[in-house]
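Exercise: predict the structure of this protein bound to EPU.
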Amino acid sequence: MDRLLISGGRKLRGVVRLSGSKNAALPTMAATLLSPGRHRLRSVPDLQDVYTMGRLLEHLGAVVTLTDSAALVETSGVEGFEAPYDLVRTMRASVLVLGPLLARYGRARVSLPGGCAIGARPINLHLAGLERMGAEITLDRGYVDARAGRLRGAVIYFDVPTVTGTENLMMAATLARGTTRLENAAREPEVVDLAGALSRAGARIEGAGGSVIEIEGVDELAPLDHTVIPDRIEAGTFMAAVGITGGEVLIEGAEPGHLDAVIAKLGEAGIAFQAADGGLRVTGPERPRACNLKTMPYPGFPTDMQAQFMALMSIAEGTSVIRETIFENRFMHVAELKRMGAEISIDGSVATVKGVRSLSAAPLMATDLRASASLIIAALSVRGETTIDRIYHLDRGYERIDEKLRSLGAWVERIEPDSGRSGPFLVQRVGDEGRGHL
Ligand code: EPU
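Solution:
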């Protein structure tokens, strides 16, 4: 299992280019199931989760070719309808094939994802919505078995705004008979990106980005031809890294309009932002200031940035109170930050972080994707050598982050225990196939 070795204490400086958004690429890949033909997706990041989605599409009968930052998906041969446990358990976003399969083929069998490191994460709202659209859903030996004739439009209210739930139902509704109205829908930029991709393929969608989305079903869609938006969470992660080290970095591709809450809170912590050609220039303070934070659905502060923000607060001047409202178990990084000398106490969904002057190096264990990012940020502030184990979590969602950090002057090395040597970043492969035809 690869580990990262980080020797911090250097200010990050230079220019870094964002990759395409993981959480926008995955639903768009799933959406290729809605129409036969050759789909072309650009700015698809080179990530383990993208391979997993590619493997799932191939399992269903698609031909997937991943070239440098693009995905070509040929869906004419799709005839499968089952997302097996082995793929779903490695990536919950596999559930995104449920809506498209049901809408196009009238049948889907998708393994129930179960809980994960950050919470229980049920899919009851996806299922209730599809039932309102006329699907018959049964749970059978750990699988969701869904059947339908042509789905019909419906009014669907989400008890809580769910990102993949909104995406699943929006995709299903594009081919339904009549109009679907999604109320209390998720407003994330990734939902808007998917709506844009579908609309250009002939879908009739209005209101994406707001909390009510209306979709008028059509008989068929053309293949997708789409460029995925830049990754706003990757942007925020680099911002926090610059914030903890001081220094100055131009983040190319950063879309300020997607980052309002993140910029507001990091600004409160003392990080300066300046719009620049093609991105955002970020300048870190001498020492960050403590500020309080509450995670919220978009446009609130993203839960996917909470761990990284906490790393920054761990060396801030003053005490900050961080409230996690989206997932019930998203403080797994706290134990590791404490091993570095952070002073953090947890009471239910609230973490109180008393900023210390500096953290110290320690061997660390990554527990989930964003926790890994938080530990990297903390390690960048420490002069000694920190090792981070289990970084396969990181490879699920950050494209070449160690390489990107090195290009900004950080001392970060990937250690591959199998070969007994350390070396530059190696893309994690899916089986033996690697990137290319899956
Ligand atoms: N929820 C339900 N029932 C449902 C669906 C959701 O109760 O049927 C609850 C969840 O338990 C949670 C809240 O609703 O408390 C919001 O969850 P949501 O469904 O929005 O999360 P998701 O769609 O499973 C996506 C991202 C996550 C990100 C969350 C929140 C993708 C592929 N994943 O997950 O990304 O944290 O939205 O913004 O888009 C990550 O990238 O590290 C990651 C975990």
